[in-house]
């Protein structure tokens, strides 16, 4: 997800480029498997403004049944990147101090991976489910209740808890 933007940095303010992304990610530090979408880059007075509409496939584990599955997440990027080195003079060009800036590397390559990673992490659910009707695992024996019911709760219980047992039977129906 790297783009050489040296020529775009030499052009006039308002110049733009459009790119399509279709890329598999095999990096362990990024939570993504596959990224596809469209990227628009526009030259600004300080750097390059990037707008992207991406679809990201993310591997996850269900918070109820612990099965692995992949989720598709739609994200949008709207970021400005600042060059570390001025492309015309070769001098160091520091980004504004008050921003946590995304930088264009000294070799004039703009890398969308970090911004995509951050947007993907922000869009991921805190408790992912493999499917909305997932019933999870049994809290006593650990069997996957999506595969079938277990009879852990059908065993004899203390008579003092029998009244609560009827409430559990109603919830499982």
Task: Explain what this protein looks like in three dimensions.
This protein has 173 residues and is of the alpha+beta class. The chain folds into two domains: 2-123, no CATH class; 136-173, no CATH class. It has three helices and seven strands; from the N terminus they run E-H-E-E-E-E-E-E-H-H. The strands form two sheets. It has a five-stranded mixed beta sheet with strand order 2-3-4-5-6. A two-stranded antiparallel ribbon has the order 1-7. Strand 3 and strand 4 form a beta hairpin.
Short key terms for the protein model shown above:
173 residues, alpha+beta, two-stranded antiparallel sheet, 7 strands, 16% helix, YceD
Distance between the termini: 49 Å
Pattern of helices and strands: EHEEEEEEHH
What is Rg?
Answer: 25 Å
Strand order of the largest sheet: 2-3-4-5-6
- Low-pLDDT ranges: none
Pfam families: YceD
InterPro entries: YceD (IPR003772)
Could you outline the blueprint of secondary structure elements for this entry?
Layout lengths: L1 E3 L1 H5 L5 E9 L9 E10 L4 E14 L6 E16 L18 E3 L4 E3 L1 H11 L38 H11 L1
Parallel strand pairs: 5-6
Antiparallel strand pairs: 1-7, 2-3, 3-4, 4-5
InterPro entries: YceD (IPR003772)
Pfam families: YceD
């Amino acid at each position: 997800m790297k783009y050489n933007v040296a020529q775009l940095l030499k052009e006039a303010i308002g110049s733009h480029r459009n790119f399509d992304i279709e890329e598999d990610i095999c990096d362990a530090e990024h939570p993504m498997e596959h990224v596809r979408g469209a990227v628009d880059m526009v030259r600004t007075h300080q750097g390059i403004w990037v707008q992207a509409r991406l679809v990201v496939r993310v591997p996850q584990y269900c918070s109820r049944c612990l099965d692995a599955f992949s989720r598709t997440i739609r994200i949008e990027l709207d970021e400005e990147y600042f060059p570390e080195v001025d492309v015309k003079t070769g001098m160091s060009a520091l980004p504004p101090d008050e921003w946590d800036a995304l930088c264009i590397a000294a070799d004039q390559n703009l890398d969308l991976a970090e911004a995509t990673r951050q947007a993907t992490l922000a869009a991921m659910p805190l408790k992912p489910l493999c499917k909305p009707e997932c019933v999870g695992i049994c809290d006593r024996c650990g069997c996957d209740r999506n595969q079938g019911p277990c009879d852990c709760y059908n065993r004899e219980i203390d008579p003092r808890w029998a009244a609560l047992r009827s409430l559990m039977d109603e919830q499982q129906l």
